[in-house]
């Protein structure tokens, strides 16, 4: 990737142009937004639009390459086409939640619909622009996305003090006794109402009951949003879109504000976790010892990437910077158990063993 500097002093946000094409561009400014372009006409048009607005322009060749850049550089805004070869817009948003949660996403599509716009916003997009668009429309979308994202950040900073844009805040663990107490109270109430116990309910019904109980526990106060999310996440293992929608309605705030707040924290997940968690270390010692090869091997075997769960719900995969076991590098953990001096073959056997064990249990 190449970058060109702005001529007039202050830079605007960096923008990765992500428009479905073998020609893709990246535009840089003060903080960092990102776009990628479909054909030469869209590419040259966007390049001209943003250069006239004093953006720097960087060229990349694929969504994957654009995403790799955010590992080293912070970007404020990502302009991302819905449909792209390999990774589509939803894939990009999911990956950005892991690698650059502070970036605002503006989705661009030639096939606009209310359903797509809703899905994009639920996933974390700040705006949604239909092609063809005018220069004023795309510039306005980027500027408003930056403003909204900065507004969300200010709210988080007001609640928790100074926070670097690329940092993640570590949350204290939730008191499991509190969740047990709430579960017991729910069961007691349902018994008095001659209704089935919490355990007898379907998963969505259980989660709704617990969410309402947690909201009541914290007096439905928006100042308690983080502990509310933390308690529900601890109970379910993730924050579902339905749960976030329920919290938004009960607290009378937008779903987008909840997503924006939660995305600052690495601990919050938005997809149901697998029964088993594999964490691959790609820190310096592990990477030199073959950690990258091991990660690629498990991705291929399970057909998932970090942050995803297998279709059968058996495994979730995470990539971590360090597990604190450098002397045993390369290291992988499975359900918290450390496996040192790991190799692709050893990890494959460990995964197969878990599948066999689970198969016996089901029989």
One letter per element, helices H and strands E, the order comes to: EEEHEHEHEHEHHHHHHEHHEEEH
Largest sheet: 7 strands, mixed
Based on Cα principal axes, name the global outline.
Answer: globular
From the 3D coordinates, which CATH architecture of the largest domain would you assign? 3-Layer(aba) Sandwich
Q: Could you estimate the helical fraction of the residues in percent?
A: 40-55%
Would you tell me which CATH topology of the largest domain applies? Rossmann fold
What is the averaged pLDDT score?
75
Number of helices: 13
Report how far the terminal alpha carbons are from each other.
Answer: 53 Å
For this structure, what is the CATH homologous superfamily of the largest domain? Response regulator
CATH class descriptor name of the largest domain: Alpha Beta
Radius of gyration: 22 Å
Strand tally is: 11
The secondary structure category is alpha/beta
The domain count comes to 3
- What percent of residues are in strands? 5-15%
Model regions low in confidence, pLDDT < 50 over at least 5 residues: 1-39, 160-170
Instruction: Classify the oligomer.
Output: single chain
Write the layout of secondary structure elements.
Elements: E1 15-18, E2 24-28, E3 34-36, H1 40-52, E4 56-60, H2 63-69, E5 77-81, H3 89-99, E6 104-109, H4 114-123, E7 125-130, H5 135-160, H6 176-192, H7 203-217, H8 225-236, H9 241-251, H10 255-262, E8 276-281, H11 284-288, H12 291-302, E9 315-320, E10 332-334, E11 337-339, H13 344-362
Parallel strand pairs: 1-3, 1-5, 3-5, 5-6, 6-7, 8-9
Antiparallel strand pairs: 1-2, 2-4, 8-10, 10-11
Helix pairs in contact: 6-7, 7-8, 7-9
């Amino acid at each position: 990737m190449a970058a060109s500097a702005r001529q007039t002093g202050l830079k605007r946000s960096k923008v990765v142009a992500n428009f479905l094409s073998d020609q893709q561009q990246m535009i840089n400014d003060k903080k960092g937004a990102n776009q990628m372009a479909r054909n030469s006409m869209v590419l040259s048009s966007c390049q001209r639009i943003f250069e006239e607005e004093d953006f720097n322009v960087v060229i990349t060749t694929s969504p994957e390459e654009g995403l790799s850049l955010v590992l080293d550089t912070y970007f404020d805004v990502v302009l991302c086409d819905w449909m792209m070869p390999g990774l589509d817009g939803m894939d990009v948003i999911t990956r950005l939640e892991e690698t650059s949660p502070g970036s605002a996403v503006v989705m661009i599509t030639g096939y606009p619909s209310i359903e797509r716009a809703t899905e994009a916003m639920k996933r974390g997009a700040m705006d949604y622009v239909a092609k063809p668009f005018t220069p004023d429309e795309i510039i306005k979308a980027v500027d408003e996305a930056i403003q909204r994202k900065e507004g969300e950040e200010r709210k988080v900073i007001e609640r928790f003090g100074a926070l670097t844009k690329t940092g993640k805040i570590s949350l204290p663990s939730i008191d499991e006794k509190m969740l047990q107490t709430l579960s017991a109270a729910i069961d007691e109430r349902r018994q008095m109402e001659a209704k089935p116990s919490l355990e007898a309910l379907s998963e969505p019904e259980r989660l709704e009951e617990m969410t309402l109980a947690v909201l009541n526990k914290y007096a439905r106060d928006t100042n308690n949003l983080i502990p509310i999310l933390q308690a529900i996440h601890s109970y379910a293992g993730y924050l579902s879109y339905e749960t976030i929608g329920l919290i938004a309605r009960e607290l009378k705030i937008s779903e987008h504000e909840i997503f924006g707040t939660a995305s600052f924290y690495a601990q919050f997940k938005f997809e149901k976790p697998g029964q088993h968690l594999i964490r691959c270390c790609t820190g310096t010692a592990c990477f030199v010892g073959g950690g990258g090869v091991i990660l690629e091997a498990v991705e291929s075997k399970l057909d998932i990437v970090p942050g995803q769960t297998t279709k059968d719900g058996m495994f979730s995969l995470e990539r971590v910077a360090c597990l604190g076991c450098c002397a045993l590098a390369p290291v992988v953990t499975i359900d918290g158990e450390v496996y040192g001096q790991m190799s692709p073959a050893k990890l494959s056997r460990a995964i197969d063993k878990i599948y066999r064990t689970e198969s016996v249990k089901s029989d």
